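fyi for ur records
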Amino acid sequence: DSRESPAFLYPTLFIDETAGCVELRYIADRKENEMRNRAGLRFLYTRRFPQEIKALAKECKTALTTHSASWLALGFSASAGEIRERLLAFLLDDIFGLPGGGLPSKGDFDETLASVGKKGLVRTGRSMLDHLLRLLVLRREISSTLHGQALKSGPGAGTEQERFTDFRDQLMDLLPPDFLTSRKFTDLEHTGRYLKALAIRIERAEHSPLKDSKKAALIQPAVSRLHRLKDGANRTAECCSLLAEYRQMIEELRVSVFAPELGTIMPVSEKRLHRKWQQVESACFRV
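which gave:
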């Protein structure tokens, strides 16, 4: 056979639903490897907690039905059943600390089972759901406020419409419609504070738009740098990590500028962001 073999083959879990087990195979596609290993590990872990998983699934269903307006406001393009499945998987991936693609040792696997059992899977999941629902309610309130202000300002107010567009873009970045698949639960740790900062900014901008524009100019250089970096599927782990840090620093700078009363979790300034961007360039633009 003259065909070249792949340079790397990754150990990958394939779920056999009929037999109720997983098979280990080796594949060359890293993205598929990561996806299948998360699903496979989730399958193995959850088989140890059948009653708890059933109870948490009911909690997810309740979270959707009792806050349907907030979920609908996200603009999900999925059925209620699909959203429930994604929500449960989203919670379980964090509860079990599922890795990006690697497989744990048996010792680590057993340690995770013991830790989850001790903390209480349903109790942990319920607490996470409460946090998510608070974020969704706040996001819907902000979206409703923006819609009302945009209607009041009318279509002719160009500068105000640009500001509303900026607000909507920020809202989408903080909690996008696909957050159940594009984010991890840990990514949302500070999202509540960032949403509150945006709500405060929107309220103050309505009364003093000129002051808001001047403050926005302080943020713009840091945001503009991100536009120079095109989305890429083959970024290194170092690049992804530094980008995440940079994006968080932008949000903290927004808090500092528009809602300083909320406080920041780190010292932040345009100079610090510029230094961080130099690190991003070094890691992400490296040939």
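Residues 1-5 have pLDDT under 50 and may be disordered. thats all i got for now
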